[in-house]
Amino acid sequence: MEQQQPLLEVEQCVTSIPEDHEATCWGCGLRLVFASYSPVFKCGWCGAITQSNQTSRKPDSICFSRWRRFRDGFFVTVLVLFMLFVICGGVWAVYPVVFSVSMFCGIFHCTVTALFAVFTIASYGLASFKSAGAPASIRWGSYPMVGKNDLENYTFCTYCSKPKPPRAHHCRSCKMCVVDMDHHCPFIGNCVGASNHRAFVIFLISVVMSCSYAAIMTIYASYHVWPTLDFQNLSSSRHSMSYMKVLMEFITILANSVFFLPARGIILVYLSFASLSVNAGIAVLLCQQLSYIYDGNSYLNRLSSPNVVHGERGLQNLVRFFGCPYPLSRVFLGYLNTGKSQDNSGSKLL
Ligand SMILES: [Zn+2]
Ligand SMILES: [Zn+2]
Ligand SMILES: [Zn+2]
């Protein structure tokens, strides 16, 4: 008699094994019989994975749902206000300085700022309002309707009471399953999944570019509006002072000059610090996202099984993710993969 092994050890067709332990496949409704008890098994007909203890879960409490909605609303409001503040405050504080340099610089600055602002807000809107990726509806539940391998590696979502495709996860904030779910982002008030992942990464890229530009321009403008520092006393007595004392004296003069900064200067200093800090944080997040895409993985999959490689690694994942046309990706990757076999650069890449 053939022994049924747990799913993680070996996958077997179990529909024809006559023995004591019985269970029903949720996918096709067939009764499965096995030699030994296993908490997780895969149907040999439809390919669905059944957990013996799966029962429909109660919906989340109203308090929990309200808390998640409040949290998302709070983060979205803070982020939108911050973006508007950086755009409006940056334009107001920087434009007199750039227009004082030349009319061309002023117009160039206004154009670049407008482009960054539109690009960032548009990608934010797309990532935020576009559905993250609901699973396609699929027939399930009874044998004649469900064909061979129709539900290959599908699991059953006990929240939605519906089939859940491989690599999909249920989000309790969005109250739905999301295909290729990466994570639920409270700053966009939405999940990051198959449909809006590209918009989310483009948003991160546009934030990094916008904040870098904002940091450069605000530091440049701060330098121009900063009151003149009086180093006369310091230069006359610096030979008789230690390095530490010179440094302390310099910092004191700099700190005192802050009190003479105009309102425009204070906004500029704040904006330069804020854009540098946001830039650092978002750049780390962007690098993490790009590395997951390169690995053919997602944040949640990495968390649930850190040592499992879910897809093929390589630059082709990044090219495919950003939707480069077929000939361009082929030429680009063919160039980078010089030295690899022809088979690898052909069938696997595209
Ligand atoms: Zn089945
Ligand atoms: Zn679900
Ligand atoms: Zn979500």
UniProtKB/TrEMBL annotation:
Top-level taxonomic group: Eukaryota
Keywords, ordered alphabetically: Acyltransferase, Membrane, Transferase, Transmembrane, Transmembrane helix
Name the record gives this protein: S-acyltransferase
TM region(s), chain numbering: 74-95, 101-127, 200-223, 268-294
Organism: Brachypodium distachyon
Name of the gene this protein is made from: LOC100846572
EC number: 2.3.1.225
Family: Belongs to the DHHC palmitoyltransferase family.
Enzyme class: transferase
Known catalytic reactions: L-cysteinyl-[protein] + hexadecanoyl-CoA = S-hexadecanoyl-L-cysteinyl-[protein] + CoA
InterPro entries: Palmitoyltrfase_DHHC, PFA4/ZDH16/20/ERF2-like
Subcellular location field: Membrane
Any one GO cellular component localisation term in the record: endoplasmic reticulum
One GO molecular-function entry: protein-cysteine S-palmitoyltransferase activity
Membrane topology per record: Multi-pass membrane protein
Main localisation: membrane
Residues in Palmitoyltransferase DHHC domain copies: 153-272
GO BP annotations listed: protein targeting to membrane
Written domain comment of the UniProt record: The DHHC domain is required for palmitoyltransferase activity.
